[in-house]
Every structure is written in C-alpha cells, then in structure tokens.
Design brief:
This protein folds into two domains: 53-150, no CATH class; 165-265, 4-oxalocrotonate tautomerase-like (Immunoglobulin-like, Sandwich), CATH 2.60.40.1680. The chain has one helix and 17 strands. The chain has one helix spanning 24-30; strands at 53-57, 60-65, 79-81, 88-91, 101-104, 110-115, 125-131, 137-139, 148-150, 169-173, 176-184, 189-198, 204-213, 218-224, 234-240, 244-251, 256-265. The strands form four sheets. Strands 4-5-6-7-8-9 form a six-stranded mixed sheet, with no helix packed on it. Strands 10-17-12-13-14 form a five-stranded antiparallel sheet, with no helix packed on it.
Amino acid sequence: MAYNRLATTIEVSGGTSPDTIVSPQTLKQNVWYLNGNNPSEQKTFGTTTDYDIPVIRNSIQRAIFENASWTSSSYPSAMTIGATGTSSALRFPLYSAVQHGILASTGGTLSFIVASGSTPSTSSPKSAVHISPAGNVGINHISPSTPLHISGITTQENFAVQLQTSLEANTDVDTGMEVITTVPISGSAAFFDYVLYNATKGSMRSGTIQAVWNATQIKYQEISTVDIGDTSGVTLSITNDTTIICLKATVTSDNWTIKAVSRTIV
C-alpha cells in the first residue's frame, strides 16, 4: 500500500496543495483484515459502482452478488450460490442452464421458482409454489385463497391419511336428535364415514352415508356393517338446514358416541 508524504518546509510539494499523509492510526481504522476484525462501528463490504461481486475459491467462482433484476421472462438472482451466474432472491442452480430460486415479493408472498420447458433456462421460468402472507400455500397457483390451493390435475399414489376424528365427534348423544357434523351446502354430494357405539362398546356399528342434493331435494343412503350387540336404537339422517348439510343422529337411549369424517364433492 502506497501513500504520499506531507511536504515539509525543506521539501517542495507538487501541485497547488500538499498531499495528506496517511498515518498508522488511520490505516488501522480503515483496513479490513481477512482473518478477523474488532470494529468499533458498522462497516460496509462492497462496491460503490455498478458491478457484480463474485466470491472466488481455488480460482473458481463459487458465489456471486449480482446486479440483476427479476422480470416476467427472466429470473436471475440477487445472490447465487454454487455456480457462475433487485428482487430479494436466492438461486439454486442444478446445472448451468437452469435458474431455480426463491423470491420474496414486496407484498409478502414467498415464491419458489423453477425453470420450465424441454430445455429449461432463464427464458422459461415457472412459478411452482407460493406462500401468501395469510399462510395459504398455492401449488401451480400464484394467488392461493385457501390453506392449500392446487391448480391443475393432481395424481394420488399410495396415499395414507391419519384422521383426527375427535374434531367431528359427538361423544354424548342422548335421547332425541343431535347434530354430529356438517358440510357446506355449496357442494353437490358428500360421504360420511362413521362409527358409533354405546358407553360400554357393547353395541357398535360403522358405515358410510352417501348424500346428494340440489336446490329442491336431498337423497341419501346408508351402507353399514352388521351390529356388534344392538344399535337399532340409533338412526342416522341427512338434512338440508338452509346453509349447511347436516348429519344427525336420533337415539332412543343415552350415552352414545358417534364419530364421523366427511368428504364433499363440489
């Protein structure tokens, strides 16, 4: 590192004014050591010009802070890790031709971007998954309006679900009629899988009630197992209660438990 001395009365300085000497103290305050620093104030690492900032290891570029903006047809990254390469983004290139990344929009939506097309590149980006500020997740849908919003055809294979039936259960059905669960009337059909039993589980049955309805009618049928004990005192029915479709139970004795899981087709 070179510096110019301040001209003395003996020395003649060049130019119209003497140069300013850089003292050891000034050097210590402004030099940034690569093996560790103890700054007394916030320091800035970067450039004051319009250039990318690459990070090099073993003569190979391993990361880069890019001077690039995201557009509707090109998804370069604000920061790239792992390959040469004004939105808040991080790109994960799987191979040199592909731009995959994460974009955080000013509106609060977090988007996961993948390259699309037979030859993926920055000219064919695809917004694959979006998480909205409300916590809704959209798959192939940029504005998810429900907790899980999927656009397009889906495939289900070897799919298993453990159902929390306690959320749709009436554990103390007594003599008379009580509601077990409901579904929106905006649908067209519903399937209620249920199990019912008395306090001792000496009497039990399970089954499915299929229901279909329109503006003027509702039809349903029950398919059930053979009883353990006697459940003839429990009758299940489906009713249209103006804004919802209800699964109800009419019983002739107290202390029945009825649990149901519903599936609706809109």
